[in-house]
Amino acid sequence: MNDKVSFGSFGIDQILNVAxxxxxxxxxxxxxxxxxSKLTDxxxxxxxxxxxxxxKYDVKSIxxxxxxxxxxxIPKVENKIAIYSDICQIMAFITSFAGEELKKVGVHSIGVxxxxxxxxxxxxxxxxxxxxxxxxxxxxxxxxxxxxSIVNEPYTAQKEVLLLVEGTTEVNAYPVLFKSMGYPITxxxxxxxxxxxxxxxxxxxxxxxxxxxxxxxCDKDKSAEIMNLDRRGCFELGSYHILEKGEFEDxxxxxxxxxxxEKLNPKIGxxxxxxxxxxxxxxxxxxxxxxxxxQFGEHYKFPGKPKLGExxxxxxxxxxxxxxxxxxxxxxxxxx
Length: 336
Prior knowledge:
The chain is built from 14 helices and 9 strands. With 336 residues, it is an alpha/beta fold. Strands 1-2-3-4-5 form a 5-stranded mixed sheet. A 4-stranded parallel sheet has the order 7-6-8-9, with helices on one face.
C-alpha cells in the first residue's frame, strides 16, 4: 500500500526544489511553494507524515549532474560524528521522498558535502552513495550504507573531546542538555571530567602531554587563575569558557529553582523572594540552597548536587536552555 504522495507529474527540477525547501524549512516551507489546495485531505495527511520530524539544515544547493545529484550544506557544528549524522539524515530523506522518481529519470547516485565554514575545501566531509545503497538507511542498515559509499574521511576521525567542568552538578546536567540539542555525548565522543578536586595546572599539563582535545568551563571566581594559565600558554590544545554569571546554578531563574526544589521535596517552602534576596547579597545559588536545607534539615534532606543538576537540565531541555549554556555546547561540538 502506497503511503506517499506521488510527485510523478512534477519535473525533476521541481522535485529537487521541493526537497531543498523541505530540508531548509520543513513542512511549513512545502506549504509555501506547493498549492496544497489541489491535494485531497488524505494526500495532505500523507505529505505531512512524510516530512514529520525532519531536521532543518542550511542547504546551499542541490545540483543535478550526469546520473546523480549533489547537495551542499553548511553544518551547524564541526564535530565529525554530528556531520556524518547530518549526511545520513539528508540522504535518508531524499531517498524516501523522491528516490523512485529520481531513478525513473536516470538519477542513480546522491552525494552530500558538509561545507565547514561555508566554503569549498579539501577539509570538507562528503559522502557519495548510489540511491539503492542510501535506501538502506531507512531500513536501519547504517553500517552497510557507510561501507558501500565513497567517503573522503574515516568515520573514526573525530577525536575524543573532554569537557572539563567544576563538579557533579555539571557532570549530570550537561549530558541531558547535549542530548536535548541532538548531540548525545557518548555517540559524539565527548567525555565528562570534573576537575574541582584536582590541581588544574597539572591536569592541563597532562592533557597537553597526551595531546588530548578539551573544552573547559569554569566558575567566574576562577577567572584570575584561568587567565594566568592562558598567559602561560596552557590552553594550546583546548578552549575555555568563564561563566559570566558566576556558577552553573546561577543561571537558574528563581521561579524555576523553586519548582525544581518543590519537585524534589514537596512543600519545602523555599520562595522566589528568598532566593532573590540572598542573590542580591552576593551569595552563590548553591550556597543559598545548602544554607536553606541546613536550616530545615530536620524535615528535608538535600538530594545532592548530581540530582539537582539533572532536574535543572531536564527543565531547561523542555523549556529552553540559557543562551550562554547553549553556546558552551556548540563550542564543544565545534572541536573537530
